[in-house]
Design a protein that fits this description.
There is one protein chain. The protein is mainly α. The chain has a domain at 2-110. The chain has helices at residues 2-30, 32-57, 70-138. It starts with a helix and ends in a 22-residue tail after the last helix.
Length: 160
């Protein structure tokens, strides 16, 4: 019962993270201090991507790269922030699910170990009982010595 509820909860959180990311994106574009930092981040990311592409295609990397205009930088950075929120929540949920599964497996393994120990104890007990029966049988006292309810005396008197 807990598994479907947990999966449903994960799905709900992932679904709710998308509007949260959209709201963060819109707020990021209007907050002046955050706006400047995301513009700087977007410009640095743009330079990195252009240099990486130029290296991949074998072009010179010592050329000057034109910066993005402010609106494109804000859009790129706020898209990045939105995706970062969605992936962070998804990654957190994935880690939570893996840990939950690991705890469940550990409980199952502990139950199996307990069952094996119980079976081993039972086998040990049965082995001891079998050895006792074998000793009794070798003692030559016959079947009456190890069957319950039968006395070893064959001469029973009925006088009471």
């Amino acid at each position: 019962m807990i598994l479907p509820v947990a999966k449903l909860g994960t799905f709900v959180l992932k679904t709710l993270s998308k509007p949260l990311a959209s709201r963060l994106k819109s707020q990021a574009a209007h907050h002046p201090r955050f706006r400047q930092s995301i513009i700087d981040f977007a410009q640095a990311n743009h330079k990195f991507q252009v240099n990486l592409q130029r290296r991949i295609y074998g072009h010179a990397t010592n050329v000057e790269i034109r910066p993005l205009d402010e609106e494109k930088a804000i859009q790129a950075a706020s898209d990045f922030v939105g995706e970062l929120v969605v992936f962070s929540i998804g990654g957190g949920l994935l880690i939570f699910e893996v840990q939950r599964s690991a705890r469940s497996e550990a409980r199952k393994e502990e139950a199996r170990k307990h069952e094996i120990e119980t079976l081993r104890a039972e086998v040990t007990d049965l082995t001891k009982r079998l050895e006792e029966l074998e000793k009794t049988m070798k003692g030559g006292r016959g079947i009456s010595s190890w069957l319950p309810g039968i006395s070893g005396d064959t001469k029973q008197t009925s006088s009471s």
